[in-house]
Amino acid sequence: MIRKRAVLLIAAVSSLLLLAACQKPATTETDSASSGQPAQAKQYTAEDLNGFVDKYMDAMLAHTVSPELFAATVRFTENGVELPLGDEGLWSSMVGKGTYKFYVPDVETNQVAFIGTAREEADDMSKGGDPVAVALRLKIVDDRITEAEQLVIRADSGMGTNMPPAAASIEKGVEPHAVYREVIPEAERPSREELITVANKYFTGMQKNDGKGDYPFTDDCDRLENGMQSTNTPLPPGVTRPDPKTSMTYSSAWGCKEQFESGLLYFVTRIRDRRFVAVDREHGIVFAFGFFDHAAGKTRHATAPGGREVVGGPVAPWTWQIAELFKIENGQIRRIEAVLQRCPYGMNSGWSNFEDGWSDKIQIVK
Question: How many domains does the chain have?
Answer without folding.
Answer: 2
